[in-house]
Amino acid sequence: MITGFGAVTNTAKVEPGSHVVVIGAGGVGLNSVQGARVSGARSIIAVDLSDSKIEAAKKFGATHGINSGKEKVGERVLALTDGRGADYVFVTVGAKQAFDSSYGLLAKSGTVVLVGMPANGVMSEIDPGTMAAYSQNILGSKMGSARIQVDIPNLISLYEQGRLKLDELVTKTYNLDEINEAIAAVKRGDALRNVIVF
Description:
By secondary structure, this protein is of the alpha/beta class. The protein folds into two domains: 2-145, Rossmann fold (3-Layer(aba) Sandwich), CATH 3.40.50; 168-198, no CATH class. The chain is built from eight helices and eight strands; from the N terminus they run H-E-H-E-H-E-H-E-H-E-H-E-H-E-H-E. A six-stranded parallel β-sheet has the order 3-2-1-4-5-6, sandwiched between helices. Helix 1 crosses helix 2 (27-39).
């Protein structure tokens, strides 16, 4: 929760009325979607290779979904933002292609926030001339720039107000002796988040 939500509210400080793209609609991405919704983003565009994950993102607040395996993401983002591009792009997966494609989705003065953790040695390429000319930014976000004493009480308050979905993140609970089944379900993409009960 704090990683995805905090990347939006703490690291980027998304402003109301912004256009937001979230690449990756897994657990971290869904919480970035929720952070954008709570922050008052005008459009929240979830990008993923899985239609079921895109549909889940819409339940958490995404206004639009793009399957990057079936559609041209850049063209769709421009169309959905009236030709402007995204004010913020959150890359919540650790895939090189996701990082490399994110920069081209930005509006002038837009910000890419790197949330997903790639394997060691993975490098991403940018066009520094374009980034400089358009005053674009790249931010890193580890654990949502969390301030535990502030963020956890805030998240609890948002949950109690009905503004934050937590229960819906848990697909299924498992006993400890079922841990392999729980992990396999996540790897297959059958689950948002599974919880092991001790």
